[in-house]
Design brief:
The protein is an alpha/beta fold. 23% of the residues lie in helices and 26% in strands. The chain has 20 helices and 39 strands. The protein has a 7-stranded parallel beta sheet with strand order 7-10-6-13-15-16-27, with helices on both faces. It has a 7-stranded mixed beta barrel with strand order 18-19-23-22-21-20-24. Strand 38 and strand 39 form a beta hairpin.
Length: 771
């Protein structure tokens, strides 16, 4: 690789004083400071400075340094004016500057649903993940929960370099052989608050690793919680609670703060420290809060993930909760494993019985005093007479005279589901029915409401409103049925789960796969009730939540098991094993359906399929990837060497003839035909893939099978067999895809040796020019 020549030492020494004076003059003009992240070519540090910190401090006397990054990322974050940031960005050693952005978290029975069994299969062969450390970037941890017990655990892996940081209500002694590390990162938020941004509210927060929100405790215990008997959420989902990798160690990195969100500068600091501490897996259930995906070189989660991957750390990220809208998937970098959400075979039914005798089906986790048995209550829909805000049951929107003593219908959207129930309760309502709109379809999640309430699908909601319009005195009651197991069909792609296609690089299919993310029981903080509302004074050891945030740690735990069983596997090999063995059928042996439509899902909905740990342990073949492969991919996107270096740890160079982005050796195949204005796009494309034999048999032959699901689309594979031997562990093949008649097309390629099936989805997209 060609390297970028550092500026001569003399030039830098002459430049720095001038630069400092210039910035000082610029800042004489009154400007509001902002927080920025600076990516620096660390190789160019002048030898006169003993450390990078000293060098960065010299770059501007008026910049307030926040974090210094030196593991997954080289550079710093600082508060300074936009003019000063602009000048500093022209420094020859500064590769990139991007503003600090706010992000949000993407917010029992699931291990069994994934095929994990005590003393059998992957749990047994990996010793439940005991030698792996999972770093969880989230809202912190509540360490006293039984899920974080270290009973009967062996010594912490000797390579571990992490620590337990002291903070309010968090002595370092809270860490143990299970919770091996806990840190918190607040400098970005403190700087933002000083400039008028969202501040950390220390009346409801802890300036320590302690979790005041609950999200981090829930995700950490989902990934690696210990076995806890007689677990439940107020009587719902009773059973043995456990994480996917029950013996894996947990390191909590608090980068998100209750009510204030998560700032890129703190997230990047969490990545940097987690890798430096020695984690093996990073779980990050966080995503952009503005619905816009930044290019990889401007996305600190993508940049931090690349640095982690380059150090051998597997990164699992959530796909976002903005589905079923197309192109809503987030965390798009191909070196991250992006996880969507599916249902499991457990639900919490509740029924709405109308005054005309009709019964509507819904779900609820309400556990308080039920409505009086045998009594019917007046039913009202405020949106019929009081407008949009009342139909959504927004704060202060309900007239107590209208809802007092009644069951209130609230439309889903614009505010948290549980907050609507609090609005109804405060206005004097006795119950609530939360009705989906068309965008949510029939997708339902349970909530621990503060009053008798349940959620119903779009069709049931329409029937409810129709009844109110036609009945002179509409009445209803709500009954709660507890926990129901063995639900069919399952899994189903959750309606909220982020969907493809990939808005940045259509040549990479995202999400990669789905995992359990609906009604997941896991440990909970003692700082807030199960709704997460400040006014909810209830306490519970476990809570049931839904979201791709809950799906992501399932894959993090699965990665811990696979890395424990196969220490030599790279992050790409671990992901490949999960994707090529993922299931595309439900527990009826029918294609996995889409909750939002009721129809069969596509790879844009579920990626390669639903995580299936029974098969991932022994995938037969894997699609391997190296740092250079990802660099070649970015070259193929048209990035220049300096832009790519913002993402990578080292200078890079692109070949004169750049490869197609589709040739990244990814476990899925996504081919994009770009139609240019006035001309017709190419009819077909050929892509190359390489498979590596990781099976027990060295001498083995694999043959391909292709299934095309779209009219007019054709797929051919050469050669017609792959022969592996003790000397030949890798083999390449070519897939030629011809576009079908529609805008998109789907197919499946499966390589089989009779014992293994290595399955890859194929997607064809026609990309129209912007008008």
């Amino acid at each position: 690789m060609a390297t970028l020549s550092p500026p001569p030492l003399l030039l830098l020494l002459l430049l720095l004083p001038t630069l400092t004076l210039t910035l000082a003059k610029v800042e004489e003009v009154v400007e509001t400071k902002k927080t920025y992240i600076f990516r620096v070519d660390h190789h160019s540090k002048p030898s006169i400075f003993p450390t990078h910190t000293h060098w960065y401090s010299s770059l501007s006397s008026t910049a307030d340094l926040l974090h210094i990054y030196d593991t997954v990322f080289h550079g710093f974050s600082a508060s300074l004016t936009p003019s000063a940031a602009s000048i500093l960005s022209s420094h020859p050693s500064v590769l990139s500057v991007f503003p600090d952005r706010l992000r949000r978290p993407h917010t029992t029975r699931s291990p069994q649903f994934l095929g994990l069994r005590n003393q059998q299969g992957l749990w047994s062969q990996s010793d439940y993940g005991s030698d792996v450390v999972i770093g969880v970037l989230d809202t912190g941890v509540w360490p006293e929960r039984r899920s974080f017990s270290d009973r009967n655990l062996g010594p912490v892996p000797s390579r571990w370099r992490g620590a337990c940081e002291l903070g309010p209500n968090f002595p370092p002694s809270l860490c143990n052989l299970k919770l091996v590390g806990a840190r918190f990162f607040s400098k970005g938020h403190d700087a933002a608050a000083a400039l008028g941004g969202p501040a950390i509210n220390e009346t409801v927060e802890f300036r320590s690793p302690r979790d005041a929100d609950g999200h981090g405790t829930h995700t950490a215990s989902t990934a690696a919680g210990r076995h806890v008997f007689q677990a439940s959420m107020s009587g719902y989902a009773v059973g043995v609670a456990k994480g996917v990798a029950p013996k894996a160690r947990i390191a909590a990195y608090k980068v998100c703060w209750k009510g204030a969100g998560c700032l890129d500068s703190d997230i990047l600091a969490g990545f940097d420290r987690a890798v430096s501490d020695g984690v093996d897996v990073i779980s990050v259930s966080i995503g952009g809060g503005d619905g816009v995906s930044s290019p990889y070189y401007l996305d600190p989660i993508a940049v931090g993930s690349f640095g982690a991957m380059a150090k051998g750390v597997f990164v699992s990220s959530s796909a976002g909760n903005d589905g079923p809208t197309p192109m809503s998937v987030t965390n798009l970098a191909p070196w991250q494993t992006t996880v969507g959400a599916g249902t499991i075979d457990r639900t919490f039914p509740a029924d709405v019985t109308l005054g005309n005798g009709k019964k509507l089906s819904g779900v609820s986790l309400y556990s308080g005093k039920p409505l009086a048995s045998g009594s019917m209550f007046p039913l009202v829909y405020p949106g019929k007479s009081s407008g949009l805000s009342a139909s959504l049951c927004m704060e202060n929107s309900l007239d107590p005279k209208l809802v007092m003593g009644k069951i209130v219908i609230c439309d889903r959207g614009s505010s948290p589901r549980v907050a609507k129930g609090m609005v109804v309760k405060e206005a004097g309502g006795v119950g609530m029915v939360l009705a989906n709109g068309i965008s949510n379809g029939e997708g339902l999640v349970g909530d621990a409401h503060v009053l008798p309430a349940c959620a119903v699908g779009s069709d049931e909601g329409d029937a409810l409103k129709s009844y109110i319009s036609s009945a002179p005195n509409p009445t209803a009651t709500i009954t709660f049925q507890g926990t129901e197991l063995g639900v069919k069909p399952a899994p189903v792609v959750a309606s909220f789960s982020g969907r493809g296609p990939n808005g940045l690089s259509p040549e990479i299919l995202k999400p990669d796969l789905i995992a359990p993310g609906v009604n997941i029981l896991a440990a909970w903080t003692a700082a807030v009730g199960p709704t997460g509302l400040d006014s909810d004074r209830r306490t519970t050891e476990f809570n049931i939540l839904s979201g791709t945030s809950m799906a992501c740690p399932h894959v993090s735990g699965a990665a811990a098991l696979l890395k424990s069983a196969h220490p030599g596997w790279s992050p790409a090999a671990v992901r490949s094993a999960m994707m090529t063995t993922a299931s595309v059928v439900d527990n009826r042996m029918q294609p996995v359906s889409d909750e939002s439509t009721g129809l069969a899902s596509t790879p844009f909905d579920l990626g390669a399929g639903h995580l299936n740990l029974q098969k991932a342990m022994d995938p037969g073949l894997v699609y391997e990837l190296t740092d250079k492969d990802y660099v070649d991919f970015m070259c193929g996107l048209g990035y220049d060497a300096k832009t790519i270096q913002v993402v990578t740890l080292s200078p890079v160079s692109c070949p004169a003839k750049r490869q197609m982005p589709e040739n990244l050796n990814y476990p899925s195949i996504s081919v994009a035909f770009f139609e240019t204005s006035g001309t017709e796009s190419a009819k077909s494309k050929a892509v190359i893939r390489t498979l590596t034999n990781v099976g027990k048999e060295a001498n083995v032959v694999y043959r391909p099978t292709v299934e095309v699901a779209s009219k007019g689309m054709t797929v051919t594979v050469k050669p017609r067999k792959l022969v592996f031997t003790a000397a030949v562990k890798t083999q390449s093949f070519e897939v030629t895809v011809a576009a079908g008649e529609g805008a998109v097309g789907f197919a499946t390629l499966t390589w089989s040796d009779g014992a293994h099936e290595v399955r890859s989805p194929i997607v064809v997209s026609r990309i129209q020019p912007l008008q």
